Amino acid sequence: GQQVMQIPQYQHVQEGEDFTTYCNSSTTLSNIQWYKQRPGGHPVFLIQLVKSGEVKKQKRLTFQFGEAKKNSSLHITATQTTDVGTYFCAGQNGNKLVFGAGTILRVKS
Amino acid sequence: DTAVSQTPKYLVTQMGNDKSIKCEQNLGHDTMYWYKQDSKKFLKIMFSYNNKELIINETVPNRFSPKSPDKAHLNLHINSLELGDSAVYFCASSPFLYQETQYFGPGTRLLVL
After folding, report:
1. Which of A33, A37, A104 has the CB atom closest to B101's CB atom?
2. Which of A17, A26, A84, B41 has CA 20 to 30 A from B19's CA?
3. B1 touches chain A (CB under 8 A)
4. Residue A96 pLDDT greater than 90, yes or no
5. Segments of chain B with pLDDT less than 70
6. CATH superfamily label, A4-108
C-alpha cells in the first residue's frame, strides 16, 4: 500500500537557525498537505500543494512539491520558539490521505 | 464556536470496560474521520464516513464501532478496552470525500489502566 516516509524524526535547533523536513511517497500523489501540531494540541492544516514543482511561501515557511509529485519539503527560515511542534506531511492518492510519521521540532532559545 | 468538537477531552478507564467518544462538526462538511495517535505521535486513520456512509475502515479491531447518526456527528464506541488502546483519538472532517484537507478536533486522551 501507499507509504509516506518523513525525515528527520526529531530536530533540535538553536533559535534563528533554519529547519527542513522532507517527505517521500512510494506512489505519485495527487496532492500533498502539511500540518502542524503544537505540543498538547491537534494537527492544524497549513497548506496544500497540487502542481508538479509547486513552491508556496507563508512568511518564514517555504513548501515545495517535487517534479515527480512523489516528494515534498517544508523549510523554516530563522526558527522562533513559536515554531515548536510536530510537522506532518500527508499525501493524497485517490480517496486516501496517508500521513507521514511527523518531524518533532524543538527550538532552543 | 468550535468547528470540530469532541467529548470527553480525557478518559481514564479500566481494562475490559466499554466507552464512547463523541464528535460533532458545525462546518457543514460531508466527510468525517477518526484517527488514532500513539505515544510516538504517529497518526493512523481508523475510519472515514461520507454522508453517514462508511467509506474507509482500516485494519481496526471490531471492538471499535463507529456510528454516524447524521453527517454532522461521528461517534466512536469501543468495547472491551485493552491497554494498547491508550492513545489520543482525533476526530476530523473535510468538505467533501475527495477534498481531503482535514479539520481536526481537539482530541480525546484515552488511558486504559
Report:
1. A33
2. B41
3. no
4. no
5. 1, 98-100
6. Immunoglobulins (2.60.40.10)
